[in-house]
Design goal:
This protein is about 30% helix and about 20% strand. With about 160 residues, it is an alpha+beta fold. The longest helix is centred in the C-terminal third of the chain and has 14 residues, at about 145-160.
Length: about 160
């Protein structure tokens, strides 16, 4: 079950994971200069398609993979808004691996290990689907496109409404 963890938005606003209780969540580590950056468009499409049904998409910029998120909060927000019209919540730049890993990602990695049971996140745009009860349903790799997981989101919304 997803614990209550403090989250800080790009604009500095403090939230808690429990602010999203009762929602189906897709939590993603994102980057502005990655080969998968175009997934922002698909992520926004998912957000638009399912938000009214109780879906939230939480984006966490990460600079741990090839320094592909070098910008500050304002630069990240401007890029995401101008280039992809991102409307889903974006949070402060976050480490997802190592000793400084954000507690949310420590929880997610333990709840849904990757291939061969490894917990480490391998690259940007790793995605975690969480049901309305706070249970991690599944982990998706960078190559899993937003469109390819839309039916899993729909199923989670239907199963837990």
């Amino acid at each position: 079950m997803l614990p209550n963890i403090e989250l800080k938005r790009l604009d500095g606003k403090i939230e808690q994971t429990h602010d999203y209780s009762g929602k189906v969540l897709l939590i993603v580590n994102v980057a502005s200069h990655c080969g998968f950056t175009s997934q922002y468009a698909g992520l926004q499409k998912l957000y638009t398609q399912f938000h009214a049904d109780g879906f939230e998409l939480l984006g966490f910029p990460c600079n741990q993979f090839g320094a592909q998120e070098p910008g500050n909060a304002q630069e990240i927000q401007k890029f995401c808004s101008a280039r992809y019209e991102v409307g889903f919540p974006l949070f402060e730049k976050t480490d997802v691996n190592g000793s400084g890993a954000h507690p949310l990602f420590e929880f997610l990695k333990q709840a849904a290990p990757g291939i061969l049971g490894t917990e480490a996140i391998k690259w940007n745009f790793t995605k975690f689907l969480v049901d309305r009860k706070g249970l991690v349903i599944r982990r998706y790799g960078s190559a899993d496109t937003p469109a390819s997981i839309a039916n899993h989101i729909q199923e989670a919304l239907s199963n837990s409404s």
